Amino acid sequence: MSKQRAAYGAKAVAGLTGRLPNPFPRTIGPNAPRYLQEVVDSGLTVDMQGRFEQAFAREMGVRHCISAPGCTAALAMLASALPFAPGDEIIVSSVTDYGTVQGIIREHFIPVFADTEPGSLVVSARTIEPLITERTRAILVVHFTGTICDMDPINALAARHGLLVIEDVCQAVFGEYRGRLAGNLSHVAAYSFDAEKTMGSDVGGCLITNDDDLAERIRFVGQSRGGEQRPGYGRIHSVPGYAYRMPACTAAITLAQLEVIRPQVAHRDRMIRLLTALLADIPGITPLPIPDYMGVYSCWMAGFSIAPGQFRCTPEEFAAQAAQAGLTGAGLGRYYLMPEALPFLEQNARKGVYPYARPPASREYHYGEDTCPHARDFLRTFVRWSTFCEKYQEEHCQLAADIVRQVADANRR
Predict the structure, then answer these.
(1) Contact residues for 65 (Cβ-Cβ < 8 A; gap 6+)
(2) I need a labelling partner for 195 at 20 to 30 A (CA). Which of 82, 126, 228, 361 fits?
(3) 305 alpha-carbon distance from chain centroid
(4) What is the pLDDT of residues 86-95, one digit of tens each?
């Protein structure tokens, strides 16, 4: 049976029309041509990956950066390096993308999805704590849209239970929480540099950590395929591993992007705060909240909730009208609710497919929209557009707010 495959990057927005900026074509750091030429002129001997890793680690203030071909691969590398057993549980943000959990699933760990805080798209210590069991080994939080989770209480909770904390920073690069950079708030963190992301390269991702042993394990299992040299014999593979290595040309572009990202993120922060204030003035419209603990808001996705009782149209109709009026890329994002968007998990749990067989599973599991009602309800009325980018200026924020107001007034009861 033929299926319509999902599109990513420039292809995902190629058919969009509207009156607001589109991230594509991306603004590329001016040193990219020089770095790419170095790769060619060196005959593929220049260590561009190493140069990027050192530069990113220095910017983040950590000892280790391990580059990857994408964030899905980065998190898969991490999962392969974790000292957990099949059937062990990892608590994960319920609102995210499949890339967050792909590695967990492939390593036969069991994802347990935490609900979001009411009126929010991110998890908290309060929503995580009831899910902790004797099989819980880690907490994987996602700073969705660039909204950073309240990490101090989450870390305190994890410390009480001896749990590893992982950050998915794909949408929050160089965002700040209480004066600290996102990614520096946990044991290990993952980033995306895919073309559509804030620090967009062609593809790419990485992990950062201060844990020397974990960094070496990630490189060994995730990049060296679990292969080691034995004198007098050659290469053996002591564990099943992967070859998740960032290509040299990707590293060249990503290094150039790193050199220009800070002012871009600062500009995004100013624009999203302006846009949030403008949207807040529209009756029946609630912009995505910006927590007080966030310094720099590295926003990747703008959005707002509508009060259905105040309008004659459905949220889907409101989003469609906004898109037609020029709000480029406007739509609902219900597919971000992972317990609902990954039906194979519920199927496997019901059938007792490994690792849901007992043992190693210690209890029955259930996946579906009802398992995370706060996230479900929020996404039903949340209109977002993923074309928010560093190209926005004050006039674009005003235009976006004007479009939302126009649609709201046209449908008001």
Answers:
(1) 52, 53, 54, 56, 57, 206, 207, 208
(2) 82
(3) 21
(4) 999 999 999 9
